[in-house]
Fold this sequence. Notes:
This protein is mainly α. The protein contains three helices and no strands. Helix 1 packs antiparallel against helix 3.
Amino acid sequence: MGFSIALIIFSGLLMMLVLMHKGKGGGLSDMFGGGMQTSVGGSSVAERNLDRITVVVGLIWFALIVVLGLLMKFD
Length: 75
């Protein structure tokens, strides 16, 4: 039960983190005006930290999926 709740929380967090990323141009980001902004410099510290946090949350989310699958299989 605890893993299911954690999965729901991490799923919502992962969706919010992905939506916070700046559009790189092309795809769905253009549809909402993301393609109109141009970045002259490299990625800022905040963007790199957001990338790192997103990867960590994604790995935790994946691990929760695997644990829940194993619990359901052996239960």
